[in-house]
Amino acid sequence: MRFVVFFCLFCLFAAPVFSQRGPTAVARSGEGAHSLLRRNGLPDTRHFQQFLTLNQGRLTTNNGLVAGRTYRLPARGKAAPAKVAAPAQAPAGSSASVLHEPLFGPRHSRVQVLDRTMRGAVYYLSPGHGGPDPGAVGKYGKQLLAEDEYAYDVTLRLARRLMEHGATVYVLVQDPNDGIRDEQFLEVDRDEVTYPRQRIPLNQLARLRQRIVQANQLHARHKGAYQRLLSLHVDSRSQGQKIDVFFYHHANSQAGLRTARNIHGVFTNRYGRSQPNRPYSGNVGPRSSLYEVRNSHAPAVFMELGNIHNARDQPRFLLPDNRQALANWIYEGLRADFKGR
Question: What domains are there in the chain, each with its CATH number?
Answer without folding.
Answer: 2-72 (no CATH), 88-339 (3.40.630.40)
